[in-house]
Design a protein that fits this description.
284 residues, alpha/beta, 13 helices, 8 strands
Length: 284
């Protein structure tokens, strides 16, 4: 029976997920695969490479670096998170992603992006590292309006959370029967319809299918929450989530808030570690 780790996005809310992951890696909890969306992909690849501590470290170190996340980056590169700096310079030179460990691990790594021409989810699997993986992680993490569309071999992509925010059903279709699902919103959260719809439709008028998907995202997201709850009741999933709204938004330069969000993830995983180990243990 294949065991999976399903990671929601949420930009810097994903530091909650990082706290969870670091506790699980320290405890030796193993999965057969991980699927991440947006920040869940950007941070989740570190589970396969076994690099606990890395994500918090580089976010704290570059919290005020204009090349990493800033209006200056948006104006000069087209992405509020600098595409070249965050997805090439940082993992290749400044805080190296362990490609060799990633390749040695038998864990599958999957991610989700959204095709801007169809509004549909696109899934990509990497068992071994390739340079293209950075492009797919960038695509999965590229929020509309504040990011450029990412072109990979003619396929135009943006944030995976638009089309499939919590891809539990997808992972089950890939044969993962028992899944730990990490959310970045508290229990009972319900996503509301987008505000500023007229502006969004104008700004993204070249991509009507993407706009339609984004406008329906709250319906998709809330339906996924209901499905996940049903799978937990059936014993097929275990959910981890913050006890309350996290003290950080999508974007923040506050090292204090980053650390606090990470610590909340650690505390959540530590409090439920025995339950997680039991759920993840091989069935006899």
């Amino acid at each position: 029976m294949k065991k999976g780790l399903v990671l929601e996005g949420g930009a810097l809310r994903g530091l909650f997920t990082v706290g969870v992951m670091d506790v699980l890696m320290e405890a030796g909890v193993e999965f057969d695969g991980v699927v991440g969306v947006s920040a869940g992909a950007c941070f989740g690849c570190n589970y396969k490479s076994g690099q606990r501590g890395r994500v918090l470290r580089y976010n704290l170190r570059y919290a005020h670096d204009l090349r990493y996340c800033s209006l200056w980056s948006l104006l000069t590169t087209g992405g509020i998170f600098g595409p070249r700096f965050a997805y090439r310079t940082l993992p290749e030179r400044l805080d190296r992603f362990d490609v060799e460990a990633f390749d040695r691990s038998p864990m599958e790594f999957h991610l989700v992006a959204t095709d801007v021409d169809t509004g549909e989810a696109v899934y990509r699997r990497f068992d071994r590292f390739s340079e293209e993986m950075y492009d797919w992680i960038l695509a999965s993490s590229s929020m509309p309006i504040v990011s450029r569309v990412v072109d990979i071999h003619g396929q135009r992509l943006l944030d995976g959370g638009i089309a499939d925010s919590i891809p539990l059903r997808y992972f089950q279709e890939q044969g993962f029967e028992r899944n730990l699902v990490v959310l970045t919103q508290p229990l009972g959260y319900e996503k509301q319809a987008l505000s500023h719809q007229r502006f969004i439709r104008f700004a993204l008028r070249r991509y009507p299918a993407l706009v339609d998907a984004w406008m329906r995202r709250h319906e998709m997201y809330n339906a996924e929450l209901n499905y996940i709850a049903s799978q937990e009741s059936a014993g097929n999933a275990l959910l981890l989530y913050p006890s309350e709204t996290l003290p950080i938004g999508h974007i923040s330069h506050s090292r204090r808030r980053m650390q606090q969000t990470y610590d909340l993830g650690r505390a959540c995983a530590e409090a439920r570690l025995e339950e997680i180990k039991k759920f993840s243990a091989p069935l006899l």
